[in-house]
């Protein structure tokens, strides 16, 4: 069981003034440019949209990604684990 918990990373988002975003629990970075950053987490695929986005820190060993710019949207695409549940069951889980 310890192996499964080691693979699962705690996933947090810290957004400061819509200008700075820290993400933990990142498994991989799919793509990034000045308008979109796509990362994979245990909670699903996270797409960050904005303007003048720049990755400040990336460490897949620790699962940390930090970026700055003007952040306009944070969108999750479920990885299948939660995809079969409806909105309210996820909300009150």
Note the topology.
Layout: H1 2-7, E1 12-16, E2 20-24, E3 26-32, E4 36-41, E5 44-59, E6 64-77, H2 87-91
Antiparallel strand pairs: 1-2, 2-6, 3-4, 4-5, 5-6
Describe the fold and architecture.
This protein is mostly beta strands and 93 residues long. The chain is globular. The chain has helices at 2-7, 87-91, and strands at residues 12-16, 20-24, 26-32, 36-41, 44-59, 64-77. It contains two helices and six strands; from the N terminus they run H-E-E-E-E-E-E-H. A hairpin with a 3-residue loop joins strand 3 and strand 4 (36-41). Strands 1-2-6-5-4-3 form a six-stranded antiparallel β-sheet, with no helix packed on it. It has a single domain (2-79), classed as Sandwich (Immunoglobulin-like), CATH 2.60.40.
Order of strands in the sheet with the most strands?
A: 1-2-6-5-4-3
Rg from Cα: 14 Å
| CATH topology (fold) name | Immunoglobulin-like
Average pLDDT over all residues: 84
- Number of domain units: 1
For the termini, the CA-CA separation is: 23 Å
Tell me the helix content.
Answer: 10-25%
CATH top level assignment: Mainly Beta
Helical stretch tally: 2
Protein structure class? mainly beta
Biggest sheet statistics:
6 strands, antiparallel
CATH architecture: Sandwich
* Amount of beta strand: over 45%
The number of distinct β-strands equals 6
The outline comes out as globular
- Element pattern in H and E: HEEEEEEH
